[in-house]
Each structure stands twice: as structure tokens, then as C-alpha cells.
Specification:
It contains three helices and 17 strands. The chain is mainly β and 298 residues long. It has a single domain, classed as Immunoglobulins (Immunoglobulin-like, Sandwich), CATH 2.60.40.10.
């Protein structure tokens, strides 16, 4: 496993790309969608594992708005896997993995993976954007889940088709849980990033990368146990990763991500290319990280 990055703060120096521009459009769209969904979900009755996931009023609104009425098909067996615990040990740190598998020889590829958590105050929890240079359409992260909820993964392919799978997770209070560490220290290290890469960086097969961002990811729903005041919202909104100047991973996210957001994803390596990450939070701060050495296994 190779540690590739140092981190810095300031305005983004990242290179523009089609993935980044597309993600910006998605961000603007999601912002107004969330306002409508949050209001409508405020008084919804708690779901139960025996409920029909397709009957969820929140899902109806998200599907109609986010996908403009397009058909969302049940994913064929083995095509889309959503790994999530049946019952969360810690509702503020719930491991989630989304893995898509297209048939051998398919000309299409997965362009987006959506993560919807029905019971969260902000159900549209993440939109991950991928390219052919991503190599493998798989993403792992950690999320907050605020109550018993259907959790949905939707894969969008390059021909415009949508496929979905659903899990039910029992959790409570994840979005309103107090921070897990010293907040003064958290703010002092705000925006520091750490990237690790696992695999043969001289080969042609996709390799696994993990990006961890030092950020409290305040939801605005947690009460400070000393002051008894709600901690203002401050959370990561955008993550863009490029390799050799070409986009390989992008995430449009919000406070559904756990404290110190972490993402595992794949990219296809090329010799001596530069791996760069850019992160923007809800205050407009931008943080960047660049490799400091040629890509070579250690």
C-alpha cells in the first residue's frame, strides 16, 4: 500500500474536466431537490422492514424529481450489490459499499452511482460519478443513518438506463449524534487529506484508492453537550479526483457522510501520472492534495 499525498488548503487549482462540470450541474439540481424532499419527510411515519420499499413517499418524490420520471428498473441478480448492515452498531458510522457488475463484453459502463437514505433529513445522500478511467464501478464509504430506513443504490449506465437495489437498515440518531472527538483539534486539521493506493501502479488493471478527509462534517442537527447549542452545519459537499488530469472519481455529498469522510474507489493507472484530489465544503473552503512522487509500488 502506497501513501501518495501531502495536503494543502486554498482555492482549487484542479484541472477542469467533463466529469467536474457535470458534477457541478448535479450539485445545483440536488440543492433544490433537497429542499422539497426534506419538508415532505419531516412528518413521515417510521418505515418497517416488512413495508414495500417501492411504496415509500420519500422514494416517490426523489425518483420523480431526480430522474425526471425515467424508469428505474430492479437490478438483475448480481448486477448491483449494496452491502450494508441489517442493524447499525453505530448509527453515525455505518459502512456502505456499492458494487456494480456489467455483463462481460458490454459496451456500456456505469457513469453514476446514487445513494439514497429514505429516513435521513437529506435523503439524497451521495451521487458518485465515474468514467471509463475509473475502471471498476465500486464505491465504499461511511454514512450516518437517522432512523429505520430503506437504503437504496441506483446505478446509471452510459446508455441512460437506471437500475436499483434496496436494503433495510435499523439505526437511530446518526445525523444528530454529537461529534466523536476534540472539535478544536478537528478544526485545526480541517481539510487535511490522506490517500492510499493498493495495487500494481505499473499495470493496466484498476487499482484501489482510499481518500480520507479530516473534516467534522457537522450536520447542524447535533447539540453541543457543553453549550447546549446546536453546532452550525459544516460539511463536505464536493470531492473530485483526477489521474493524469483526467477525472476518475467525483462525489456530490452532504452531512449524511460520517465525520472525517472516507471513500474507497478504483482507477486505471498510467506510468508516472499525477493523482490529485480537490474537496469543497459547505462554507466554500477548498482543499487540494497532490502526489509528491512518481507512482511506483513500494
Amino acid at each position: 500500500m502506497t501513501d501518495l499525498f501531502h495536503s494543502g488548503t486554498g482555492r482549487s487549482q484542479g484541472r477542469p474536466g467533463t466529469l467536474c462540470a457535470s458534477a457541478s450541474r448535479v450539485s445545483r439540481r440536488v440543492a433544490w431537490l433537497l429542499a422539497a424532499v426534506i419538508v415532505s419527510s419531516a412528518h413521515a411515519a417510521p418505515p418497517q422492514p416488512t413495508d414495500d420499499p417501492q411504496a415509500s413517499p420519500i422514494w416517490h418524490k426523489v425518483r420523480a424529481s431526480l430522474f425526471d420520471g425515467r424508469t428505474v428498473l430492479p437490478a438483475p441478480k448480481g448486477m448491483l450489490v449494496l452491502d450494508a448492515p441489517t442493524r447499525a452498531i453505530d448509527a453515525a458510522v455505518v459502512p456502505i459499499a456499492i458494487k456494480a457488475h456489467l455483463p462481460a463484453g458490454a459496451t456500456e459502463y456505469v457513469t453514476r452511482l446514487y445513494l439514497i437514505i429514505d429516513s435521513n433529513p437529506s435523503p439524497i445522500s451521495a451521487i458518485f460519478q465515474l468514467t471509463r478511467d475509473s475502471g471498476r464501478p465500486e464505491v465504499e464509504t461511511r454514512v450516518r443513518i437517522d432512523g429505520y430506513s430503506f437504503v437504496r443504490a441506483i446505478a446509471e449506465t452510459s446508455d441512460g438506463k437506471l437500475y436499483a437495489t434496496t436494503r433495510f437498515v435499523k439505526a437511530s440518531g446518526g445525523c444528530s449524534a454529537p461529534p466523536g472527538g476534540d472539535q478544536a483539534a478537528a478544526m485545526a486539521s480541517l481539510g487535511r487529506m490522506h490517500m492510499r493506493v493498493d495495487g500494481d501502479l505499473k499495470g493496466s488493471e484498476p487499482v484501489l484508492a482510499q481518500l480520507t478527509i479530516s473534516h467534522p462534517n457537522h450536520s447542524g442537527l447535533a447539540m453541543d453537550q457543553v453549550s447546549r447549542q446546536f453546532t452550525p452545519a459544516l460539511y463536505v459537499r464536493k470531492v473530485d479526483v483526477t489521474y493524469g488530469g483526467r477525472p476518475v472519481f467525483s462525489a456530490d455529498v452532504d452531512f449524511s457522510m460520517s465525520e472525517n469522510p472516507s471513500f474507497r474507489f478504483y482507477f486505471v493507472p498510467h506510468a508516472n501520472a499525477e493523482l490529485a484530489a480537490s474537496v469543497t465544503d459547505s462554507s466554500g473552503r477548498n482543499f487540494t492534495a497532490l502526489q509528491t512522487q512518481p507512482l511506483a509500488p513500494q
